[in-house]
Task: structure prediction
Amino acid sequence: MNNWNHNHILDLSTFSLDDYKTVLELTTRFKDVHKSSSRKLPALQGKLITNLFFEPSTRTRSSFELAAKRLSADVQNFSVSSSSLSKGETPLDTILTYISMGADILVIRHESTNVPADLANYVDTNNINISILNAGDGYHSHPSQGLLDLFTLASFFNPKEVSTNSLLKKKITIVGDILHSRVARSNLWALTACGADVTLCGPPSLLPDEFNDFVLNPPPGQKIDPVNKRGIVCIERSLKDALRNADAVMTLRIQKERMQQNMLTDLDTYHEQYGITHQSLKWCKKKAPVLHPGPVNREIEISSKLVEANSIKSKLIIFPSPILSQAKRPSLGSRLIT
Ligand code: NCD
Result:
Protein backbone atom coordinates (compact mmCIF):
# COMPACT_ATOMS: atom_id res chain seq x y z
CA MET A 1 0.00 0.00 0.00
CA ASN A 2 2.65 2.50 -1.02
CA ASN A 3 1.53 6.10 -1.45
CA TRP A 4 -1.87 5.47 0.12
CA ASN A 5 -2.82 8.75 1.72
CA HIS A 6 -6.47 8.26 2.66
CA ASN A 7 -6.86 7.93 6.40
CA HIS A 8 -10.61 8.20 5.88
CA ILE A 9 -12.67 7.12 2.85
CA LEU A 10 -15.43 9.66 2.38
CA ASP A 11 -15.90 10.36 -1.32
CA LEU A 12 -14.33 8.94 -4.49
CA SER A 13 -13.85 12.47 -5.89
CA THR A 14 -10.59 12.47 -3.91
CA PHE A 15 -9.27 9.23 -5.47
CA SER A 16 -6.49 9.30 -8.06
CA LEU A 17 -6.02 6.69 -10.78
CA ASP A 18 -3.21 5.20 -8.66
CA ASP A 19 -5.64 4.85 -5.75
CA TYR A 20 -8.03 2.84 -7.91
CA LYS A 21 -5.14 0.70 -9.16
CA THR A 22 -4.12 0.00 -5.56
CA VAL A 23 -7.67 -1.00 -4.62
CA LEU A 24 -8.01 -3.33 -7.61
CA GLU A 25 -4.61 -4.95 -6.92
CA LEU A 26 -5.39 -5.47 -3.24
CA THR A 27 -8.88 -6.78 -3.92
CA THR A 28 -7.49 -9.21 -6.49
CA ARG A 29 -5.06 -10.51 -3.83
CA PHE A 30 -7.89 -10.91 -1.30
CA LYS A 31 -10.37 -12.46 -3.70
CA ASP A 32 -9.42 -16.05 -3.04
CA VAL A 33 -9.68 -15.73 0.74
CA HIS A 34 -13.29 -16.85 0.83
CA LYS A 35 -12.34 -19.99 -1.07
CA SER A 36 -9.46 -20.95 1.24
CA SER A 37 -10.09 -23.44 4.04
CA SER A 38 -9.69 -20.92 6.89
CA ARG A 39 -11.54 -18.18 4.94
CA LYS A 40 -9.58 -15.68 7.01
CA LEU A 41 -6.54 -13.45 6.86
CA PRO A 42 -4.94 -11.87 9.93
CA ALA A 43 -4.74 -8.42 8.26
CA LEU A 44 -6.91 -6.64 10.88
CA GLN A 45 -6.23 -8.85 13.90
CA GLY A 46 -6.54 -6.84 17.12
CA LYS A 47 -8.49 -4.03 15.44
CA LEU A 48 -12.01 -3.04 16.45
CA ILE A 49 -14.40 -2.12 13.64
CA THR A 50 -17.69 -0.47 14.52
CA ASN A 51 -20.54 -0.45 12.03
CA LEU A 52 -22.80 2.52 12.72
CA PHE A 53 -25.84 2.31 10.48
CA PHE A 54 -28.28 5.15 11.11
CA GLU A 55 -30.16 4.15 7.92
CA PRO A 56 -31.46 0.69 6.99
CA SER A 57 -29.08 -1.61 5.18
CA THR A 58 -28.98 -5.27 4.30
CA ARG A 59 -26.06 -5.73 1.94
CA THR A 60 -23.65 -3.01 2.93
CA ARG A 61 -23.87 -3.57 6.68
CA SER A 62 -23.55 -7.34 6.51
CA SER A 63 -20.83 -7.08 3.87
CA PHE A 64 -18.75 -4.77 6.05
CA GLU A 65 -19.28 -7.14 8.96
CA LEU A 66 -18.29 -10.18 6.92
CA ALA A 67 -15.25 -8.42 5.43
CA ALA A 68 -14.09 -7.37 8.91
CA LYS A 69 -14.50 -10.92 10.23
CA ARG A 70 -12.68 -12.40 7.24
CA LEU A 71 -9.82 -10.03 8.00
CA SER A 72 -9.84 -11.15 11.68
CA ALA A 73 -11.03 -7.87 13.23
CA ASP A 74 -13.43 -7.64 16.19
CA VAL A 75 -16.76 -6.18 15.06
CA GLN A 76 -19.48 -4.18 16.78
CA ASN A 77 -22.77 -3.42 15.05
CA PHE A 78 -25.05 -0.53 15.88
CA SER A 79 -28.51 -0.15 14.44
CA VAL A 80 -31.05 2.55 15.23
CA SER A 81 -33.89 0.20 16.19
CA SER A 82 -32.02 -1.36 19.13
CA SER A 83 -30.19 1.78 20.30
CA SER A 84 -30.63 4.44 22.97
CA LEU A 85 -31.58 6.98 20.32
CA SER A 86 -35.18 6.15 21.21
CA LYS A 87 -34.38 7.31 24.77
CA GLY A 88 -33.31 10.71 23.48
CA GLU A 89 -29.55 10.20 23.08
CA THR A 90 -28.07 12.30 20.25
CA PRO A 91 -26.30 10.53 17.36
CA LEU A 92 -23.05 12.30 18.35
CA ASP A 93 -23.25 10.93 21.91
CA THR A 94 -23.90 7.47 20.49
CA ILE A 95 -20.84 7.80 18.24
CA LEU A 96 -18.69 9.10 21.12
CA THR A 97 -19.68 6.06 23.17
CA TYR A 98 -18.30 3.77 20.48
CA ILE A 99 -15.17 5.91 20.09
CA SER A 100 -14.56 5.61 23.84
CA MET A 101 -14.74 1.82 23.53
CA GLY A 102 -11.63 1.96 21.37
CA ALA A 103 -12.89 1.62 17.80
CA ASP A 104 -10.11 1.73 15.19
CA ILE A 105 -12.46 2.10 12.24
CA LEU A 106 -15.96 3.57 12.23
CA VAL A 107 -18.08 2.54 9.26
CA ILE A 108 -20.96 4.98 9.10
CA ARG A 109 -24.17 5.30 7.08
CA HIS A 110 -26.41 8.30 7.61
CA GLU A 111 -29.34 9.85 5.78
CA SER A 112 -27.71 13.30 5.95
CA THR A 113 -25.00 14.30 3.52
CA ASN A 114 -21.62 15.03 5.09
CA VAL A 115 -22.16 13.32 8.45
CA PRO A 116 -19.14 11.03 7.75
CA ALA A 117 -17.04 14.05 6.68
CA ASP A 118 -18.04 16.00 9.79
CA LEU A 119 -17.12 13.02 11.93
CA ALA A 120 -13.75 12.70 10.19
CA ASN A 121 -13.17 16.37 10.86
CA TYR A 122 -14.12 15.89 14.50
CA VAL A 123 -11.72 12.99 15.09
CA ASP A 124 -8.88 14.76 13.26
CA THR A 125 -9.40 18.00 15.20
CA ASN A 126 -9.40 16.09 18.47
CA ASN A 127 -6.39 13.94 17.52
CA ILE A 128 -8.41 10.76 17.80
CA ASN A 129 -6.72 8.03 15.80
CA ILE A 130 -9.73 6.51 14.03
CA SER A 131 -10.50 5.98 10.34
CA ILE A 132 -13.97 6.87 9.09
CA LEU A 133 -15.42 4.85 6.22
CA ASN A 134 -18.50 6.31 4.57
CA ALA A 135 -21.03 3.54 3.92
CA GLY A 136 -23.49 5.97 2.31
CA ASP A 137 -24.48 9.55 3.23
CA GLY A 138 -27.70 10.98 1.87
CA TYR A 139 -27.56 11.34 -1.92
CA HIS A 140 -23.88 12.21 -1.75
CA SER A 141 -21.52 9.30 -1.74
CA HIS A 142 -21.23 5.52 -1.43
CA PRO A 143 -17.54 4.85 -2.00
CA SER A 144 -17.48 1.13 -1.12
CA GLN A 145 -20.23 0.45 -3.66
CA GLY A 146 -18.37 2.51 -6.29
CA LEU A 147 -15.16 0.54 -5.66
CA LEU A 148 -17.02 -2.75 -5.72
CA ASP A 149 -18.72 -1.91 -9.01
CA LEU A 150 -15.37 -0.88 -10.48
CA PHE A 151 -13.82 -4.18 -9.42
CA THR A 152 -16.80 -6.13 -10.77
CA LEU A 153 -16.60 -4.42 -14.16
CA ALA A 154 -12.81 -4.61 -14.40
CA SER A 155 -13.01 -8.35 -13.56
CA PHE A 156 -15.71 -8.80 -16.17
CA PHE A 157 -13.87 -7.00 -18.95
CA ASN A 158 -10.56 -8.73 -18.29
CA PRO A 159 -10.69 -11.54 -15.71
CA LYS A 160 -7.05 -12.47 -16.32
CA GLU A 161 -5.68 -9.05 -15.42
CA VAL A 162 -8.02 -7.01 -13.27
CA SER A 163 -6.95 -3.46 -13.96
CA THR A 164 -8.24 0.06 -14.52
CA ASN A 165 -6.97 -0.23 -18.12
CA SER A 166 -9.85 -2.48 -19.07
CA LEU A 167 -12.32 0.36 -18.37
CA LEU A 168 -10.68 2.73 -20.86
CA LYS A 169 -13.17 3.95 -23.51
CA LYS A 170 -15.85 1.51 -22.35
CA LYS A 171 -19.41 2.82 -22.54
CA ILE A 172 -21.19 2.32 -19.23
CA THR A 173 -24.86 3.29 -19.10
CA ILE A 174 -26.46 4.15 -15.76
CA VAL A 175 -30.26 4.18 -15.84
CA GLY A 176 -32.89 5.40 -13.41
CA ASP A 177 -33.19 7.51 -10.29
CA ILE A 178 -29.84 9.20 -10.57
CA LEU A 179 -30.90 12.31 -8.64
CA HIS A 180 -31.28 10.35 -5.39
CA SER A 181 -28.44 7.92 -5.97
CA ARG A 182 -25.19 8.10 -4.03
CA VAL A 183 -24.23 4.91 -5.89
CA ALA A 184 -24.47 6.71 -9.26
CA ARG A 185 -22.40 9.64 -7.96
CA SER A 186 -19.63 7.37 -6.65
CA ASN A 187 -19.66 5.38 -9.87
CA LEU A 188 -19.37 8.58 -11.91
CA TRP A 189 -16.14 9.50 -10.11
CA ALA A 190 -14.68 5.99 -10.26
CA LEU A 191 -15.60 5.06 -13.83
CA THR A 192 -14.58 8.36 -15.44
CA ALA A 193 -11.28 8.32 -13.51
CA CYS A 194 -10.49 5.03 -15.25
CA GLY A 195 -11.35 6.49 -18.65
CA ALA A 196 -14.81 4.98 -19.10
CA ASP A 197 -17.48 7.13 -20.78
CA VAL A 198 -20.70 7.20 -18.78
CA THR A 199 -24.12 7.68 -20.33
CA LEU A 200 -26.85 8.63 -17.88
CA CYS A 201 -30.47 7.91 -18.71
CA GLY A 202 -33.70 8.84 -16.94
CA PRO A 203 -36.56 11.34 -16.97
CA PRO A 204 -35.66 15.02 -16.28
CA SER A 205 -37.29 14.86 -12.81
CA LEU A 206 -34.84 12.10 -11.77
CA LEU A 207 -31.92 13.18 -13.94
CA PRO A 208 -31.51 16.97 -14.15
CA ASP A 209 -29.37 18.36 -17.01
CA GLU A 210 -26.76 19.53 -14.46
CA PHE A 211 -25.47 15.95 -14.30
CA ASN A 212 -23.73 16.58 -17.64
CA ASP A 213 -21.19 18.63 -15.68
CA PHE A 214 -20.95 16.35 -12.67
CA VAL A 215 -17.27 15.38 -12.95
CA LEU A 216 -16.04 18.61 -14.56
CA ASN A 217 -15.22 20.24 -11.23
CA PRO A 218 -14.31 18.80 -7.85
CA PRO A 219 -17.04 19.20 -5.22
CA PRO A 220 -17.18 22.36 -3.06
CA GLY A 221 -14.42 22.33 -0.46
CA GLN A 222 -12.08 20.21 -2.60
CA LYS A 223 -9.42 22.24 -4.39
CA ILE A 224 -8.21 19.92 -7.11
CA ASP A 225 -9.32 16.96 -9.13
CA PRO A 226 -6.63 14.30 -8.56
CA VAL A 227 -7.39 12.76 -11.97
CA ASN A 228 -5.80 14.38 -15.07
CA LYS A 229 -8.13 13.14 -17.76
CA ARG A 230 -11.56 11.70 -17.13
CA GLY A 231 -13.97 9.87 -19.41
CA ILE A 232 -16.93 11.79 -20.76
CA VAL A 233 -20.39 12.00 -19.15
CA CYS A 234 -23.49 12.52 -21.28
CA ILE A 235 -27.25 12.35 -20.84
CA GLU A 236 -29.61 10.46 -23.14
CA ARG A 237 -33.33 10.64 -22.46
CA SER A 238 -34.24 7.66 -24.63
CA LEU A 239 -33.35 4.25 -23.21
CA LYS A 240 -32.76 2.85 -26.69
CA ASP A 241 -30.17 5.56 -27.47
CA ALA A 242 -28.58 5.21 -24.04
CA LEU A 243 -28.17 1.45 -24.35
CA ARG A 244 -26.95 1.45 -27.95
CA ASN A 245 -23.41 0.00 -27.95
CA ALA A 246 -23.25 -0.03 -24.15
CA ASP A 247 -20.55 -2.33 -22.74
CA ALA A 248 -22.35 -2.55 -19.39
CA VAL A 249 -25.58 -1.31 -17.82
CA MET A 250 -26.26 -0.25 -14.27
CA THR A 251 -29.86 0.15 -13.18
CA LEU A 252 -30.85 1.92 -9.97
CA ARG A 253 -33.67 1.58 -7.50
CA ILE A 254 -36.43 4.18 -7.60
CA GLN A 255 -35.88 5.71 -4.14
CA LYS A 256 -39.48 6.34 -3.15
CA GLU A 257 -38.47 7.26 0.40
CA ARG A 258 -36.39 10.21 -0.83
CA MET A 259 -38.82 11.36 -3.48
CA GLN A 260 -40.92 14.50 -3.44
CA GLN A 261 -44.47 14.29 -4.74
CA ASN A 262 -45.02 14.46 -8.51
CA MET A 263 -41.51 13.36 -9.44
CA LEU A 264 -42.94 10.34 -11.20
CA THR A 265 -46.42 10.19 -12.63
CA ASP A 266 -46.81 6.47 -12.85
CA LEU A 267 -44.54 3.50 -12.17
CA ASP A 268 -45.91 1.37 -15.05
CA THR A 269 -45.02 4.10 -17.53
CA TYR A 270 -41.62 4.43 -15.88
CA HIS A 271 -41.04 0.69 -16.31
CA GLU A 272 -42.07 0.87 -19.97
CA GLN A 273 -39.70 3.77 -20.64
CA TYR A 274 -36.73 2.97 -18.42
CA GLY A 275 -37.09 -0.59 -17.13
CA ILE A 276 -34.24 -2.98 -17.93
CA THR A 277 -35.72 -6.13 -19.44
CA HIS A 278 -34.56 -8.95 -21.70
CA GLN A 279 -36.01 -6.88 -24.53
CA SER A 280 -34.17 -3.63 -23.77
CA LEU A 281 -30.89 -5.50 -23.22
CA LYS A 282 -30.94 -6.38 -26.92
CA TRP A 283 -29.96 -2.75 -27.64
CA CYS A 284 -26.65 -3.12 -25.76
CA LYS A 285 -23.53 -4.86 -26.95
CA LYS A 286 -23.85 -8.63 -26.87
CA LYS A 287 -23.27 -10.07 -23.38
CA ALA A 288 -23.22 -6.65 -21.70
CA PRO A 289 -23.54 -7.25 -17.94
CA VAL A 290 -26.29 -5.64 -15.84
CA LEU A 291 -25.46 -4.35 -12.37
CA HIS A 292 -27.92 -3.32 -9.68
CA PRO A 293 -26.74 -2.23 -6.22
CA GLY A 294 -29.87 -3.65 -4.55
CA PRO A 295 -32.40 -3.56 -3.04
CA VAL A 296 -34.34 -4.29 -6.22
CA ASN A 297 -37.82 -3.03 -7.04
CA ARG A 298 -39.05 -5.70 -9.42
CA GLU A 299 -41.10 -4.57 -12.41
CA ILE A 300 -40.03 -0.98 -11.85
CA GLU A 301 -36.35 -0.44 -12.71
CA ILE A 302 -35.81 -4.07 -13.75
CA SER A 303 -38.11 -6.85 -14.88
CA SER A 304 -38.83 -9.64 -12.47
CA LYS A 305 -38.04 -12.09 -15.28
CA LEU A 306 -34.54 -10.72 -15.61
CA VAL A 307 -33.98 -11.00 -11.87
CA GLU A 308 -35.53 -14.49 -11.73
CA ALA A 309 -33.67 -15.75 -14.77
CA ASN A 310 -30.46 -14.96 -13.04
CA SER A 311 -31.06 -15.18 -9.32
CA ILE A 312 -31.03 -18.94 -8.88
CA LYS A 313 -27.27 -19.13 -8.84
CA SER A 314 -26.82 -15.92 -6.88
CA LYS A 315 -24.52 -15.86 -3.92
CA LEU A 316 -23.54 -13.14 -1.49
CA ILE A 317 -19.80 -12.79 -1.25
CA ILE A 318 -17.63 -10.31 0.60
CA PHE A 319 -19.00 -6.93 -0.46
CA PRO A 320 -22.37 -5.41 -1.45
CA SER A 321 -24.21 -6.40 -4.43
CA PRO A 322 -24.48 -5.74 -8.08
CA ILE A 323 -26.45 -8.11 -10.19
CA LEU A 324 -24.45 -9.27 -13.10
CA SER A 325 -26.45 -10.90 -15.80
CA GLN A 326 -25.33 -12.64 -18.93
CA ALA A 327 -21.81 -12.95 -17.65
CA LYS A 328 -19.71 -15.51 -15.90
CA ARG A 329 -19.37 -14.71 -12.24
CA PRO A 330 -16.08 -12.97 -11.54
CA SER A 331 -14.25 -14.42 -8.61
CA LEU A 332 -14.99 -11.79 -5.99
CA GLY A 333 -17.27 -9.04 -5.37
CA SER A 334 -20.88 -9.17 -5.11
CA ARG A 335 -24.12 -10.90 -5.38
CA LEU A 336 -23.59 -11.82 -8.95
CA ILE A 337 -26.42 -13.16 -10.91
CA THR A 338 -25.22 -15.15 -13.87
C1 NCD B 1 -27.87 1.43 -2.14
C2 NCD B 1 -27.79 2.48 -1.05
O1 NCD B 1 -28.19 2.27 0.09
O2 NCD B 1 -27.29 3.53 -1.41
N1 NCD B 1 -27.76 0.12 -1.77
C3 NCD B 1 -26.57 -0.39 -1.32
O3 NCD B 1 -25.94 0.15 -0.47
N2 NCD B 1 -26.13 -1.54 -1.87
C4 NCD B 1 -28.90 1.71 -3.15
C5 NCD B 1 -30.32 1.92 -2.76
O4 NCD B 1 -30.68 2.12 -1.61
O5 NCD B 1 -31.13 1.93 -3.69
Notes: DSSP finds ten helices and nine strands in the chain. Residues 143-157 form the longest helix (15 residues). Strands lie at 48-53, 74-79, 105-110, 131-137, 171-175, 197-201, 233-236, 248-251, 290-291. Residues 312-322, 325-338 have pLDDT under 50 and may be disordered.
